[in-house]
From TrEMBL:
PROSITE patterns: K_BOX (PS51297), MADS_BOX_1 (PS00350), MADS_BOX_2 (PS50066). The keyword Iron does not apply. Residues 221-242 are annotated as: Disordered. This is Uncharacterized protein. Coiled coil: none annotated. GO terms for cellular component: nucleus. One of its GO terms (molecular function) is RNA polymerase II transcription regulatory region sequence-specific DNA binding.
């Protein structure tokens, strides 16, 4: 007995719906791959699950290239027949394109951060790895440039600080020298002038005096010697005592 025709309607059982989605999705991706190989056609397939998970398939060219080609084709059709579509129809066509474009960009961002890598094929993973390597090389080149610029700037600052330090050291040395000279001048002004002592006269110039002479003693003694008693000498007018006895007798 042949298999009955499946009625197309929403499967109410959640588990059955998920199993059917997985099987049909795998079959759909397989058919897209087959038609791309057999007919040499560019195929782009985008599928979102009920949970919002993205599943896609693209041929040798990336999904972005296929979408851009689709947008160019749609734009060319609109230019050939501008009166055939109204403004409302144009916005209606642009909206799905923009939504798909935003979804592709969001997916690429998640892939760059290492998320949602399961749906990607080997070729897509290699392409993603190449893009990340190229971005890392650019980042490292820019980082190295900034490091060299920072080192050069620090070297210039170091040289400028050394020059300022040398100038300050010279100024400090000059200030110390000026202060020392000022203090020396002040000491010379405040201190009284003391003439140097005269040298003693030679011993040969001093007259030799005999010890015991009154003149010599008075010459050697100071002015206070004048107050001493003078030596008594006999006077020429004084009469001796024996003469008085002779006159009286």
């Amino acid at each position: 007995m042949g298999r009955g025709r499946v009625q197309l309607k929403r499967i109410e059982n959640k588990t059955s719906r998920q199993v059917t989605f997985s099987k049909r999705r795998a079959g759909l991706l397989k058919k897209a791959h087959e038609i791309s190989v057999l007919c040499d056609a560019d195929v782009g397939l985008i599928v979102f699950s009920t949970k919002g998970k993205l599943f896609e398939y693209s041929t040798h060219s990336s999904m972005e290239a296929i979408l851009e080609r689709y947008e160019r084709y749609s734009s060319a059709e609109q230019q050939l027949d501008p009166e055939g579509s109204t403004q409302q129809g144009t916005w209606a066509l642009e909206h799905p394109k923009l939504v798909a474009r935003i979804e592709v960009l969001e997916r690429n961002l998640r892939n760059y951060t290492g998320d949602d890598l399961d749906p990607l094929s080997l070729r897509e993973l290699q392409h993603l790895e190449h893009q990340i390597d190229t971005a890392l090389k650019r980042i490292r080149t820019r980082k190295t440039q900034l490091v060299h610029e920072s080192i050069s700037e620090l070297q210039k600052k170091e040289k400028s600080l050394q020059e300022q330090n040398s100038m300050l050291a010279e100024k400090l040395k000059d200030n110390e020298k000026a202060q020392w000279e000022q203090q020396e001048n002040l000491l010379c002004l405040n201190s009284p002038f003391v003439p140097p002592p005269l040298p003693p006269p030679p011993m040969s110039s001093v007259p030799s005096l005999a010890f015991g002479s009154p003149f010599q003693v008075r010459g050697l003694m100071g002015e206070n010697d004048q107050e001493a008693e003078p030596r008594t000498q006999p006077s020429a007018t004084q009469i001796p005592p024996w003469m008085f006895r002779h006159v009286n007798g």
